[in-house]
Amino acid sequence: MTKLRKTATALCSSLWLAGSLAGLPLVLGACSPTIQQEGNVPDVDQVVQINPGVDDKNRVNQLLGSPSAVSAFADRTWYYISRRTEQTAFLDPEVVDQEVLAISFDAQNIVQDLKVYGLEDGRMVAMVDRVTPTHGNNLTIVQQVLGNLGRFNNPDKKSRPY
């Protein structure tokens, strides 16, 4: 009986080891990062064709396409924004590379300046998690449901404007 038990134990150990080795590539494959490219990545050969003082918005649009964002005031700066992130398994994504091409235009819509900003030029903005207080009652869902009883329009009575 002990010889049979030893043989069974050795067989189970061998199967466990074989299963572990067979599953190792699957486990390691799950840990490889997922790379995601987001945004508009202009081709460098097309960007160098833009001549400040000569080209206008139409020419830039022909070469690079529409921008990712436009300045909020006076529509004089176009931004082409791209970002590459890596995410491993369930961890938060990490920004690996980021580039912003800013093209400034003058009042006549002629290219005035081109600037490229990288990941090192960015700044983290702290989020404020304050809540704006509102006046009124904090009602539970039961109070809200019961509070609406009897507020429906009666077809016999003339409805009141609110």
Description of the molecule:
The protein has about 160 residues and is an alpha+beta fold. The N and C termini lie far apart (about 90 Å). Helices cover about 30% and strands about 25% of the residues. It has 2 domains: about 1-30; about 35-125. Strands 1, 2, 3, 4 and 5 form a 5-stranded antiparallel sheet that branches. It has 4 helices and 5 strands; from the N terminus they run αβααββββα.
Beta-strand portion reads: 15-25%
Give Rg in angstroms. 32 Å
**Which structural class should the secondary elements be placed in?**
alpha+beta
Work out the count of structural domains. Answer: 2
Label the overall shape.
flat
Figure out the total of helices. Answer: 4
Write a concise keyword list for the protein shown above.
single chain, 5-stranded antiparallel β-sheet, 5 strands, alpha+beta, flat, 2 domains, 30% helix, 162 residues
How do you describe this structure in short?
This protein is α+β, with helices and mostly antiparallel strands. 30% of the residues lie in helices and 24% in strands.
Write the layout of secondary structure elements.
Blueprint: H1 2-30, E1 34-39, H2 44-47, H3 57-64, E2 69-70, E3 77-87, E4 94-105, E5 111-118, H4 141-147
Antiparallel strand pairs: 1-3, 2-3, 3-4, 4-5
